[in-house]
Amino acid sequence: MRRRVVITGLGPVSSIGIGAESFAAALQQGSSGISPIASFDAAGFPHRMAGEVPAFEPKDILQVLDPQQWGRTSLFAAAAARLAAQDSGIDPAELARSRAGSSIGTTSGESQVIEKLTAQWVDGGLRDLDPALVRQTPASRLATAVNRELGLTGDAITLSTACSASNYALGYAYAAIATNEADYMLAGGADSVCRWAHAGFYRLGALTEHICTPFDRDRSGILTGEGGAALFLETLESAERRGARIYAEVLGYGLNCDANHMVAPDADSIAECMRRAHRKAGIDASQVDYICAHGTGTPANDAMETRAVMDVFGETPPPISSIKSMLGHTMGAASGFGAIASALGIANQFIPPTINFTTPDPQMPAIDPVPNVARPARLRVVQNNGFAFGGNNAITILGEVA
Amino acid sequence: MTTDQIPVSESPPTPLYITGWGVLSPLGDGAREFSEAVVQGRSGLVDVSGMFDEELPGDKAFALPEFQVRTYLGRKGTSFFDRSTSLALIASDHALKDTGLEVTDDNRDQVGLVLGTTTGSIKSTSDYSRETLTQQRPYLVNPVLFPNTVMNCAAGQAAIWHRLKGVNATIAGGQLAGLTALRYASRTLRWGDAEALLVGAVEEFSPHTAWATHLAADAATAGEAAVVFVVESGEPTAAARRRPDAEILAVELTTADPEQGAEAVTAAYARCIDRALRTAGVTADELWAVAPGSTGPGDPEEAALDGALGTASPTRLRVKELAGECHAAAGALQIAAVLAHHRGAPALDGRPALITSATREGAFGAAVIRGWHRDETDNGS
């Protein structure tokens, strides 16, 4: 028998807010987390904006890990997990004694550590690499950092399926609890802004200059972003027993692969992933009240995502907004932030807006992007989209506890 | 006891089988060659001094100096593949040829990949990052090579190459990648997300990995390999009346904190081994082999094995001595080493073996599998 799984803790470490309350307020207000790049010298780049998290002070949040020993992305993951566990109200000692683990998604892992090592290579040679930094490079450290910070003794799985990785991680955590292999899981994702991704997206023609405008007629690309997103999962029974606040239930997920092109999205395959997610969650498309979009703001993504939505939902799809308009593209953390926003939307009865929206796209007349202002709404079922390089589609379905 | 701890009555989990495998390593090209090398104890250490322009920490490593992807896959569509992607593609190709599983339009959306890595192709990533520092303008990077910098590049390209439209997961596990991929795949199959999965891990050899291994891993000598297993749930295997290479009886993971001291870590690892054996329904006495990731006595993994095995004395298969430090591919090579011994040895049929791996940070895994031999008439032998 499958156990029901709910979300009882949220840990966003983001450019628009750190902690569930400030993140929720920022979503309600439609805040922007975009600022001039400070984590590397962007002077030589034509575009110099990103969604960094300058307010992130690891030592203010972490209780166990020594920030000197871990890269920025592991610290994002561990801090997000610490916040999510605190938000759940679980007794930390009880959590550490339990069957508990983590699954964390990422695109580029410890990218800033790799960039520091690359600079050492350029300045001297490979023999001059700092061994302590080399030891910080494995991306597996993200989930291990979470387990070490919280004293968890279960699985520590880092899923590096690029920009849909958090949804992969959330699906894994949900299945682990549903199948009675774990009682508590921390799931989410983390990434750090880095020079090579900024350069790569620019050269792909996918990087916009100032603001990210998903679903807008004049959208011109992404802004890179960073942060850590974590959700605390347990069984419905356990949450009710300890009187925990329940944000939402995890109803299911769908995963598939385009197997077609490394970077160009495939609308038919995305539509199939949506159907798969609905089937697994035991819902019909007509029950979805809101879609938290992948919505990168590139012309291609938003057009393909819209085509897939129209294919699955017909001529009148539910509202679909992109929080990447506020956060930029936080890569492996993106669908984790999407899941947090979806859970907050369900719990607080609102739809986060797509900010920076000015002109509807005549190619997508049926799309309601919830322009600029958050909207009150009762959300019974929410679909959270995540797509990635490699054609890795992952969609999670969250719902009100019925 | 809380209600969650009350055991729920469940039917036994769906059995999972390895029905074929492929490997590309200095020890062999394909499962058969690799098996011969492992059984004979041949070393994969070769002269690598001519492989790169950059200086290497030593003239010898466990690498494939003559390797060129076009030898295997032709020139078309392969020119921008990095080494990790190429190795993974070829190992998965070998695995598909070694199994009875046929991927057709009827099942390709139910067949996927679970591939282990450390940090993807660190050469691709670091070279790309280097361009942003050394080019006249920092953005003068090659857009065509950008997808090579993401860790799921190999899995994505393998899916495209073999037209596998199911689950496509990349697991960053380092030393634990092989066992973590196997655990992820087991849950995925039992949850009904896929009917068959190509499960494995890849690590490439480059000046970057050679130096990183030399500097950060106690002067170990780096190697490279890709290993892919075809894993299927019980029913398709039974329907095809094929004898599997192995049954996956248990894959358990744990995390310990090295800051708590070696004793605590050893105890945690030993508990994980016990759990794996109990899940598998196997006693230490029944094990014919243990394939550890550790290279010898003195570390918590080895101490945990000593504690968990007690008086039992299964053969220690130390494939790292033959294949080098292959990081993410290490665990998959350990599993392959067990299968290598089974492949030509009917006497070992049905006997269980234990595989263990640990990371420097305190992540640990233990798997129990039992294998069978191959006859000349079986698939792919």
The helix count of chain B comes to 12
Query: What is the CATH architecture annotation of the largest domain in chain B?
Result: 3-Layer(aba) Sandwich
Instruction: Tell me what portion of residues of chain A adopts beta-strand conformation.
Output: 15-25%
Radius of gyration over C-alpha positions of chain A, nearest whole angstrom: 20 Å
Tell me which CATH architecture of the largest domain in chain A applies here: 3-Layer(aba) Sandwich
DSSP E strands of chain A, number:
15
Shape of chain A: globular
CATH class descriptor of the largest domain in chain A: Alpha Beta
> Which CATH first-tier class of the largest domain in chain B would you pick?
Alpha Beta
Percent range of helical residues of chain B:
25-40%
What is the succession of H and E elements of chain B? EEHEEHHEHHEHEHEHEHEHEHHEE
Annotated CATH topology of the largest domain in chain A: Peroxisomal Thiolase, Chain A, domain 1
> Could you spell the SSE succession of chain A in H and E letters?
EEHEEHHHEHHHEHEHEHEHEHEHHEEEE
Overall mean pLDDT of chain B: 93
User: Structural class from helices and strands of chain A?
Assistant: alpha/beta
How large is the radius of gyration of chain B?
20 Å
* Number of β-strand runs of chain B: 13
**How would you describe the shape of chain B?**
globular
What is the makeup of the main sheet of chain B? 11 strands, mixed
Q: Which regions of chain B are unreliable across 5 or more consecutive residues at pLDDT < 50? A: 1-9
Question: What is the compact description of this entry?
Answer:
By secondary structure, chain A is α/β, with parallel strands linked by helices.
Q: Secondary structure elements and their pairing?
A:
The complex is a heterodimer of chains A (402) and B (381).
Chain A: E1 5-14, E2 17-18, H1 20-29, E3 35-36, E4 49-50, H2 58-61, H3 72-88, H4 92-97, E5 100-105, H5 111-123, H6 131-134, H7 141-150, E6 156-159, H8 165-178, E7 184-191, H9 195-203, E8 227-235, H10 236-241, E9 248-257, H11 267-281, E10 290-292, H12 299-313, E11 320-321, H13 324-327, H14 334-348, E12 350-351, E13 375-376, E14 381-386, E15 392-399
Chain B: E1 16-25, E2 28-29, H1 31-40, E3 46-47, E4 60-61, H2 69-73, H3 83-98, E5 111-117, H4 122-134, H5 153-162, E6 168-172, H6 177-190, E7 196-203, H7 207-216, E8 225-233, H8 234-240, E9 246-255, H9 262-280, E10 289-292, H10 300-309, E11 315-316, H11 320-323, H12 328-343, E12 352-358, E13 363-371
Parallel strand pairs in B: 5-6, 5-7, 10-11, 10-12
Antiparallel strand pairs in B: 1-2, 1-8, 1-9, 3-4, 7-8, 9-13, 12-13
